[in-house]
Amino acid sequence: MNITLFKDYVELRGMNFSQFAKALGVKKSYICARMKYPDRLSTEDIKSMAHLLELRPYEITNVFFPEEAIFSLSDFFNKA
Fold first, then answer.
1. What pLDDT, on a 0 to 100 scale, did the predictor assign at position 77?
2. How confident is the model at residue 74 (pLDDT cuts 50, 70, 90)?
3. Average pLDDT, stretch 16-21?
4. What is the mean pLDDT of residues 25-31?
C-alpha cells in the first residue's frame, strides 16, 4: 500500500481519517491498522475504500498495489 498516496486521496476528497473511517462505518483505529499492516486488507476493504475515494482502476493499483503499478509501468516501457 502506498500510504502517502492513500493519505493524499483522503485529503483530496476533503476528509481526515476520522471522517473517512466514519463514512466507511469503521473506527479510525481500523484504518490505521490497515495502513500499518496492509496485508490485512480484504478485497471488501479495498472495494469500499476505493469507492468512497472515487478511485479509477489505475489509481486503485497505484494506492493498494504499488509494486504491481511499478512492474506494469516498467513492463510497458520495456515493450515500447
1. 55
2. low
3. 96
4. 96
Residues 6+ apart with CB under 8 A from 51: none
Grid coordinates representing 70? 511499478
Element (H, E) at 8: helix 3-12
CA distances from 63 to 3, 4, 38, 78 (A): 7, 9, 11, 23
List of residues 6+ apart from 14 with CB closer than 8 A? none
Task: Centre a 10 Å sphere on the Cβ of residue 61 and count the other Cβ atoms it contains.
Answer: 18
Taken in order 74, 76, 41, 45, is the CA torsion positive or negative?
A: positive
The total number of residues written for the chain in this structure: 80
Q: Which three cell numbers stand for residue 16?
A: 481526515
DSSP state of 37: -
Query: Which residues touch 30 (CB under 8 Å, ≥6 apart)?
Result: 21
